Amino acid sequence: MKPVLLFVSCLTIAAACAPARAQERVYRCANNEYTNQIKGRTGCQLVKNDGITIINSAPARTTVQSGASSASAPVQQRINVAAQRARDADARAILEQELRRTEARQAELEKEYNSGQPDKIGGEAKNYQKYLDRVAEMKAAIERNKSDIEGIKRELARYTAPVSSNP
Question: Which tens digits make up the pLDDT trace of 112-154?
Fold first, then answer.
């Protein structure tokens, strides 16, 4: 009787483990796409799946709010208009200060660049490539600084736009 019981329990365990072992072949195709169906696809290679674990994710849960709680949500999210204007004024002041600092840096960079003819320093008189590399770096720094100035001006434009006075 014991051998039969042992045999039945082994079959039960084997049946429970069968889906985990019986994975389909997995192929890796172009742009790291993994699939088990290669029909109509090219450039796919069989992936050795000794240590691959596949976990099916559950769909994201969506919660439904009752009518009373959803109606009160916008009221909780409202901000005091005066406080928001103060924050906007602070942000504008910080952006203006950053703009002045960036424009001063731009003037300094352009002065040093000297219209593409900066003064040679150190061993650049003997090594012309060093000079050219430094000039290229200076030009790139000027371009980056210009784009920074443009970005700051775009941000400032957001704060100068008229703010609606709806409470």
Answer: 999 989 999 988 889 999 999 999 999 999 999 999 999 999 9
- Tokens 């906007």 — which residue? 88
- Does any domain span residue 152? yes
Rounded Cα gap, residues 30 and 125, in angstroms: 51
Q: Is residue 128 part of a domain?
A: yes
Q: For residue 156, what are the domain limits?
A: 93-160
Cα pseudo-dihedral 159, 165, 166, 167, rounded to 10: 90
Whether the full predicted model's pTM is greater than 0.90, yes or no, is no
Helix (H, G, I), strand (E, B) or coil at 37: coil
H helices, E strands: number in the chain: 4, 3
Domain count, the chain: 1
Give the whole-angstrom CA distance, residue 88 versus residue 162.
Answer: 12
- CA dist 167 and 158 (Å) reads 20
d(CA 15, CA 60): 31
Place of tokens 């443009």: 150
Q: Note whether residue 106 is domain-resident.
A: yes
- Kindly state whether residue 31 falls inside one of the protein's structural domains: no
